[in-house]
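Deviations from the work plan: none for this task. Representative record:
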Amino acid sequence: MATLTQVGRSVPRLEGEAKVTGRAEYVHNLRLPGMLYGKIVRSTVAHGRIAKLDASAAQALNGVYRVVTIEDVRKVIPNPFYGPAFHDQPILAAGKVHYVGEPVAVVLARDPHVADAAAQLVEAEYDELPAVFDEVEAMTSKAIVHEELKPAGTFPDLKHLKGRRDTNVALDFHLRRGDVAAALAQADHAFEHTFRTQQVLHLPLEPYVSIGEPTDTGLTIHTASQSPSFVRIEISRLLGWPENKVRVKVPYLGGGFGGKLYIKLEALVAALALLVRRPVKISLTMEEQFYTLTKHASTFRIKSAVKDGRITARECEVWWNGGAYADIGPRITQKSGFTAPGPYDIDNISIDSYSLYTNLTPAGALRGFGIPQLVWAYESHTDMMARALKLDPIELRRKNLLRDGRPQATGTLVKDAAIEAVLDRLALRMNWRGPFERGSGSVKRGRGIAIGFKASISPTTSIAIVNVAADGSVTLYCSTVDMGQGSDTANAQIVAEVLNIPAERVKVVHPDTDVTPYDMATLGSRSLYHMGNAVRLAAEDARNRIAALARELGLPEGSNVPVAELFQKKYKMQAGNIIGTGSYIPSYVPPDPNGQTSEATPFWMVGGAGVEIEVDTETGHVRILKLVNVVDVGRPINPRIVETQISGAAVMQLGFTMQEKMEFDAGQVTNASLADYKIPSILDIPIDMQNEVVEAEQGSGPFGAKGVGESGTFAVSPAIANAIEDAVGVRLTALPLSAEAVYRALRKAQGVPLEE
Amino acid sequence: MPTIHFILNGEKVVAEVATHATIVEVLRDRFELYGARESCAQGLCGCCTVLVDGTAVSGCLYLAAFADGKDVTTIEHLAADGVLSPVQEAFLEAGATQCGFCTPGFVLMASQLLKEHPDPADDDIRHYLSGNLCRCAAYPEIVKAVKLAATKMRSGRT
């Protein structure tokens, strides 16, 4: 490859100055003339039929413009159910409520305080129904969340669920490879454990916010969304309109992390705006984020057969707590589910992965698309095996690693996955063979490592446009959403590399579906690879057209005349454009009934973590002394932004590991505020935190790059649990690893358990 | 509605404010300043930070009526003449922003810290910034930025 000048350079974020001066645009800041504010009235029960909904007192309050229920919504959207996998979620509760916090009505007012006050006056009464909250119980529970399943028809593997009744299973994914029973029968050892994860949430500091604005030609939606193209397609489907009547505009996002995907408030503000023919804004409060979307709680039963230090079989049963609406849960169940055995070369595998409806806040993708839940289980399990077999945990892993050219559980041959390099660098940075201080007195020290991997959700499409203006300045149009991950800057670097200009001179147009072309969504670390490839193709197309123009003007090949002069020569003035387009979709083969496919994913992401910790045996408090994150991102496009992505992801996962947990009482979240639900602050950062990108290249990626946003999350949780056992000899199998959980385990191990 | 007189970003201003209005609402609705942002509404995240007489306060809890007679500075004032302050410059150079939503609060809090501790120890930095949350967790870069800003300011670039 020729020397790169733009790719591989730590270009400062293009929008950096706008962010440090407070001028960056967010929907949070946007106000339109004549705009009304909406306040949502929410369900107070987990499952029930709406017996009475009386808005008269709210409607009578001075300053209230209108109170809207599902009956009003049906006037503009007759079939008001949406969702990416199932059309199961109503714009407002339709006859039934399925979780505490479900939107039941909306109060509209000019003054948001009036809307807040009036929302308290809407009276709702419910005939309660039996509810189910636990994902394993939901498999057999008599409490059924939805009477009938309504798959969206988008995904072939959901079609068989259409019309199914009396079940909470929103997807059952099965994979079979080899003969697990035979391998278990022939094994030297078999190990079986069950692990659980808790509900946590994205909690972006800019809470969910959308504005619907009726226009002469249709409707504009200004929204803090990671998926503008999906919003346009889904809203136009709901309205029965052509796509081009719906315009979706997205400025910067104050964080997303997988929460601001698909439809959140967009269908509601669309309906409201069309009903009242005025712009309507809904900004959720911090509390309301707890009633919008969570990460899946999960239960994972894993069983392995070992013979001569080799893992010969692995049986995985995973239950995903999807909450009241499927959102993207069924895709997580399958697309991440197939990596449940981990980055190991195992001949005999069975996976059963179930997406379940329960009466809790809906669950969706959260920085890892299900992978951190899986790695938590398989890397805790793998460590427990190493301990039981008295093998070094790194050596056991090394002996069983999945290497390039070998088939993963789906049968897809692994390519460009630097799993071994990640493990090697982790061992080196942790000085694994060196002496280790074990602590003294009541404070014990321990260390642990873990590695995980992820497939990219596939197949998905990205399209980009590169526009070269008559003065040679360059504009990129794409619908990738910069929510802090630095995609604007990275995409500008790709354009700049191809067109041989400084990245700082490329302008990136923010998603606006009237202007920027289709992109599946900004999720699952897919954008740098998929959009990056599309952007590269668009820039190459523009470059080829510039060369064609030079030929047309009779210039010799490689004459290097500035672009502005070419335009001048052709149009005799500063005029014209050159438009390059690029479209990218990787090849993909759908799995057969046994989950087998030759092409499961266009690329693999690899992430490893190592920790040194201190456990206070008198309090159970765990202190992280050192956290090492090692990842394979292919070739980094912007090394500094890559590093902030790795450490940011790791710290977020540290919160999910050590402290964050949504508490429920009969389905009601009881800690729905930052006062009671603590996210990591600057005091929670390990003093010694190291991040490393291994030497690697993704052959099919733009300039050898692939996604990075999630890889830092994969291995943090099990590395810490492994270190806790190393320090004090107790094993925790459920997150979070709170001081209370550690102390309870210590007391239990001493034979003096605490009361529940 | 009470009328308040205060200095906003160096200029004398007057505003009629509802008794329940917070300073962050008044800045947004009356003065079109959006850099202080309400997020948690409990004074716990620091996104709404503004300086009142040089001290950082949570704008979501600070009633606008209290600002009467005070000197209020928002993020918009730090580069009012088009030149970034050393703290802003350092945040840029250290790559201390991701989504940017919390950034103004961190910049203002760090500005107060450096005024009071021109050469802050790590503990000072952690103490002062512990009331500002960054969900993207750019904390290591933020610590670097504060140290870089301290160096810039001590070397006379103020």
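Chain A has three domains: 16-24+460-584, 32-129+208-283, 294-402+410-457+592-749.
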